[in-house]
What we know:
Blueprint: E1 2-7, H1 11-22, E2 27-30, H2 39-42, H3 57-81, E3 92-95, H4 100-110, E4 115-118, H5 119-125, E5 135-139, H6 147-159, E6 164-167, E7 172-178, E8 181-187, E9 190-199, H7 205-210, E10 219-229, E11 242-245, E12 248-252, E13 257-261, H8 275-288, E14 296-307, E15 314-317, E16 324-328, H9 334-349, H10 365-371
Helix pairs in contact: 1-6, 1-9, 3-6, 3-9
Amino acid sequence: MNDFLIIGGGVIGMMSAWQLADAGCNVTLIERGRCANEASWAGGGIVSPLYPWRHLEPISQLSRWSEGYYPALARQLIEETGIDPEYRQKGLLYLLVDDEVEAKAWAARVEKPLEQVSANFLYDKEPYLASGFDKALWMPTLGSIRNPRLGQALRARLASHSRVRLEENTQVNGFRLQRDRLEGVETSRGVFSAGRVVVCGGAWTGKLLKSLGVELPVRPVKGQMMIFKTPPKHDRMLVERVVLMDGRYLIPRSDGRLLIGSTLEEKDFDKSATDDAKASLLDSAVAMVPELAKCEIEHHWAGLRPGAPDGMPFIGAVPGIDGLFVNAGHYRNGLVLAPAATRLLVDQLLDRVPILDPEPFHLSASTIEARHPSLAG
Length: 377
């Protein structure tokens, strides 16, 4: 029998499996499609919440821990798999920020470099930005990672791990309970048993747990993105660092591709890409970098984020069902928070001192009542 079953093969599920296996546990990871092909693939890869000063402190704590972990993780994956997840630490430029006072106060409190810069500084860094900006906020330490390649590297690492069994294209159909103890899951490929089960199902987590009578408020929130092919401009890329304006961002890749994202849509589990969103994304991209009007749009897609109240993920044991745990509800910050969120749960699973206080993320009855009153009682 497995020590652990993990349901969901996104970045959260794969990092969990890797850490547990490295600790000597036997792990089976069950994924209904192919690993890292949902939100982990569809996102942008900025290793920070978009406006970190607008988030609750527990989310900021997870984010800061993860940000410090990503450079070493990227190096390790290159060495062990030969796949480069392209971690780039080129900084972020914030345009038209209307709460600069709050941003600077947050930066001072957490000792994060963040400064207001002049137009000369801005256009020296990114000369092809639209004209007319007289200032910006500059966060020099921010990094980004090429999330599809991160997913490929994590999958390759797990596939080579002697203590990990990957079960892709395997649908979970139900759970096996003995009184109030979970003993395994029923799938399209038979029954898998384990001492403990961790649900990392992203936007599908709420649906999975509902069959057990657990009403976890995790819902799908659709996001659409596009990627441009951009030519080099005078021995540099058209855009070299992350740029953020009015909630939309540009993320450069090392090969000259440039992402624009993203929409926020309450469309249940609909993942269709729409013409209206494409036009809106193009308008946002051109408003930041007019040259993009001449560039080829290589791909336009949609993904589903796991939304949760206040953007706070649920990390920990599920009350009333022995052996069941969850790590889900990271909303727009799944990749941002993944190293810390998975480490935090693994610490609890292995009875280690946690990296930070796990209480804000627990699924206790009082926590669920406070964060989602309709579930009380």
